[in-house]
Design brief:
- The protein is α/β, with parallel strands linked by helices and 224 residues long.
- The protein has a single domain, classed as 3-Layer(aba) Sandwich (Rossmann fold), CATH 3.40.50.300.
- Strand 3 and strand 4 form a beta hairpin.
- The two termini are 20 Å apart.
- Bound molecules: 2'-deoxycytidine-5'-monophosphate (DC).
Length: 224
């Protein structure tokens, strides 16, 4: 059976994951957060002091990553240990941006992403889903927002944490990651030619969901 695949790409903090979660639960699709894969490789590199690209490349065969879906929510394991919550730190965000520029790391994670899309109806979010991982996706969205807006959303999200960075720190991290992610030689962050661009700077969460659900109704042969 052919599965239906929806790709959502865009820069850090554009709202990809919350939007993709809401839409996938509406459609009964699996939401695959591919950033978590790069974050998990970064966690492995951090835990094993793999500070050079060469050292990390040599260790890739030892990295066992699995995705499981519990009540529609993605959990990720690294060598059988659940690391879903451990990968959400600013250091790992920056580490993920670093390791994601390594071609061998991208190749290593490619098959797992393809397999998920082959076996399930998915909404997959990331940076290169519409351009590299699922170039034949049934619908491609490129979600973006201004750096200020993205930083203030992240800041609001993170405020409950005791060690919340300042707004300026979050914004500086976002700008640095945008630069890294869109200037790397392999699979840089960019809008696929056939992706629909949605700038959410002045849009509310429900408005964005509605716009995407309308696109799904218009373009895909599925009930919404
Ligand atoms: O979506 P995120 O913030 O969790 O992603 C963390 C980093 O991983 C991001 O800065 C770039 C990288 N990434 C990537 O290169 N390709 C993807 N498909 C997803 C994430």
């Amino acid at each position: 059976m052919k599965t239906t695949n929806i790709a959502i790409d865009g820069p850090a903090g554009a709202g990809k994951s919350s939007i993709a979660k809401a839409i996938s639960s509406e459609l009964g699709f699996i939401y695959v957060d591919t950033g978590a894969l790069y974050r998990t490789v970064a966690l492995y590199a951090q835990e094993h002091d793999l500070n050079t690209d060469e050292a990390l490349i040599k260790s890739l065969d030892d990295i066992e990553i699995d995705l499981n879906f519990i009540g529609g929510t993605q959990r990720i394991t690294l060598c059988d240990e659940d690391v879903t919550d451990d990968i959400r730190t600013p250091e790992i965000s920056m580490g993920a941006s670093r390791v994601s520029a390594i071609k061998e790391v991208r190749d290593f994670l490619f098959d797992l992403q393809k397999k998920m899309a082959r076996e399930h109806n998915v909404i997959m979010d990331g940076r290169d889903i519409g351009t590299v991982v699922l170039p034949d996706a049934d619908l491609k969205i490129f979600l973006t927002a201004s750096a200020d807006e993205r930083a203030s959303r992240r800041y609001l999200e993170m405020q409950e944490k005791s060690d919340c960075p300042t707004f300026e720190e979050i914004k500086a991290d976002i700008i640095k990651r945008d630069y890294n992610d869109s200037h790397r030689a392999v699979a840089p962050l960019k809008k696929a030619d056939d992706a629909v661009l949605i700038d959410t700077t002045d849009m509310g969460f429900h408005e964005v969901c509605e716009e995407i659900l309308d696109l799904i109704k218009e373009r895909l042969d599925i009930e919404v």
